Amino acid sequence: MKKILLISILFLFSLILNAQTVLVVASEPDAKITVDGQNLGTGTLKVKVPKDACINVKIQKVGFLKYEQIYCNKKGGSTPPKKQYFEMSKDDAEEASIKTDQANVDFSLEVKSTYDPTEAWKLTSQIVTDYFDAIEVADKETSYLRTAWSVQVFQQNTIRTRLIIKLGNSNPLTFKIKLVSESSGVSGTSVKADEQFRDWDRILRKYKNIISDFSTRLGNK
């Protein structure tokens, strides 16, 4: 038993002795640094790469792009650098958007009593086309409208946005308006890959006034 324990200790000591150390430095001093899923520091961290192994290092900060690097210390492979500096760039998807409670929520809008259904539907369509290029479904009889997805690709994200309008009440005439905002977390995702998109609690800046426009131009209040 003592012999087995001694061999195990010597083996571990050999791994430590032959480990390579990499100084990881992020341009943002409060960026979180995780190694193999464990949060080990912020900004600057010395990480050890054991002999015959690889480690996964991630650098993250809210509002910035995410960085990931794999370091390996294996015979015949490339040697990890002694130091690596990560110049972190702002997340272009977040810079082009705002955090809001208007995303993915049904808003009820009571139409001004001075508009009859035909006038209200016409104005609704005009407001929609101020923001979206293509309407996928428009049914005046049922007061249902849905735009096609509008897609914008960023360095580490793909955002798709659409507007859905449906009848909430006939008397008084009330529409339910929903601005759907979804992200995939990956650049270049196909707009048809529904399984890769999730609700996003942000909306692109170009849509930030759409709900208020409906309220001002069409609403009863």
Could you explain how this protein is built, in words?
With 221 residues, this protein is α+β, with helices and mostly antiparallel strands. The chain has helices spanning 2-17, 92-95, 117-131, 210-217, and strands at residues 20-26, 32-35, 38-42, 44-49, 53-60, 67-73, 83-86, 97-99, 106-110, 135-139, 144-147, 150-153, 158-170, 173-183, 198-199, 202-204.
Task: Please sum up the structure shown.
The protein has helices spanning 2-17, 92-95, 117-131, 210-217, and strands at residues 20-26, 32-35, 38-42, 44-49, 53-60, 67-73, 83-86, 97-99, 106-110, 135-139, 144-147, 150-153, 158-170, 173-183, 198-199, 202-204. The protein is an alpha+beta fold and 221 residues long. It folds into 2 domains: 2-90, Immunoglobulin-like (Sandwich), CATH 2.60.40; 97-217, Alpha-D-Glucose-1,6-Bisphosphate, Chain A, domain 4, CATH 3.30.530.
Instruction: Indicate the overall shape.
Output: elongated
Tally of individual domains: 2
Distance between the termini: 83 Å
Give the ordered list of helices and strands.
HEEEEEEEHEEHEEEEEEEH
Number of helices, counting only DSSP H or I runs of 4 residues or more: 4
Rg result? 27 Å
Q: Main β-sheet, in a few words?
A: 7 strands, antiparallel
Could you give the count of β-strands? 16
What is the CATH C-level name of the largest domain?
Answer: Alpha Beta
Show unreliable segments.
Answer: 5-15
Might you state the CATH topology name of the largest domain?
Answer: Alpha-D-Glucose-1,6-Bisphosphate, Chain A, domain 4
CATH-scheme architecture of the largest domain: 2-Layer Sandwich
Question: Which whole number gives the mean pLDDT?
Answer: 91
Helix fraction by DSSP (H/I, runs of at least 4):
10-25%
State which percent range the strand residues make up. 35-45%
What's the oligomerization state?
single chain
Structural class: alpha+beta
